[in-house]
Amino acid sequence: MSLDQFRQASASDGLAAALDTVGFWAAVVMVAVALTYMLVLACGAYTLAGRRKRAGQRDRLSRPLQHPVGKPLQIVVLMPCLNEAAVIGPSVARLLEDPNPALHVLVVDDGSDDATSDIVGAIADPRVALLRRDPPNARQGKGEALNHAIEIIRARYRDIDPEYVVVGVVDADGHLDPTAWDVARGALRDQTVGAVQLGVRISNRHASLLARMQDIEFVTFTSVFQQGRRRMRSVGMGGNAQFVRLAALNALGRRPWTRSLTEDFDLGIRLNGTGWINEFRGDAAVHQEGVTSLRRLIRQRTRWFQGNLQARNLMGFIARHLRGRARADTLWQVLSPYLLLAGSLLVISFLLMLGLCVSNVIRGVPQQWSWVPGTYLLAFGPSYLYALVYWLYERDEGAGPVRCVAWCHLFVLYGLLAGVFGWRALARECLGRSGWAKTSREAEHASVPEAMTQEAQT
Questions:
Q1: Per residue in 334-343, is it b (16+ CB within 10 Å) or e — as a string?
Q2: Can you give the residue ranges of every domain in the chain?
Q3: N or C: which end of the chain has fewer CB atoms below 10 A?
Q4: pLDDT tens digit string along 160-171?
């Protein structure tokens, strides 16, 4: 080896060592913070579950809490849709399988140019109504469509105490578990609960590995984060299978939903500041269609990420209206997108270091590989926790622990896409671009899981 080659190899090794040191310790700090946060939420969820179990044992010895006589809950399910002719009919029919006369469905057609309105208008059940929005008022965002619908609901139920009117939001492709109505109504028996969010599962998880990753994402989020946030009083709302008292929505003003790209995220934060309690119930879920195209997934998640970036506008509200652990956790939620952007820089740093190592191996320069075990534990250690949580959900469908561990290793790699979503979303936000076309619906092969269908038929 010549002197110049030796100097080049030494400089390359020095740069690799510097990147290795900085990247390693930055990753250690970020992973440690993330794991600590997850463990705090997991411990909170476990403690709360134990308390509720003991309380449930006591409740069986006494009379269960009931609504006052003569004041049954009136539930109005809003189903905002745009060009959903392929799914709207069966989706409304599934909601109407609950025979309760106090259940109504209001389909909000936000300017469809297909047969969506015609299909809804042909449904004979008197519990179904159609709100047709036409241009130029239509297609202004989901929040605007929901705000229009809430004006109709306020007028229709003006003679009923708003605490006994519940507004649900279910997507046009949503498949509620048969037990969902009992779970939601049961949670709202507590007069301090203003909103209930059900769990979310991906219906086509068996047909696509990409959809499986989204299912793991929702399961781990709801099982660890949402359950833990019940104790912190910082439960968030999703855009699908949320049920909110009209009184709680009224506490947010005439237009409860914002024009944010993630109006559901904003709603959950603002509801937590009203004095009402947001509840999460994971013992029932809505099954929704997962995206099976990487290009469409990036587009969808970029919109979600940008909406979370827009939540910075709520920082003042959080500081004024939230207290204690709820304030701290909500601030964490709002700042998380920026932490993910910072974390993506560590990924780039690691890839550069790995490239230098490979280059040195090709050039015959000896390498130290002692960093591999530690890097593996930092990157894939959390996957074993994810696998345990996911296996508890999937074991009844035949998924073994080894398969769940393999899936969750892939899930860690899937999580690296957040860097792509994040920087794309940040660029759009900086450019002032916030318009989005509706994510097109997948083919109808995404169906309700077989076990759920059989249960509904019985």
A1: beebeebbeb
A2: 1-52+161-458
A3: C
A4: 999 999 999 999
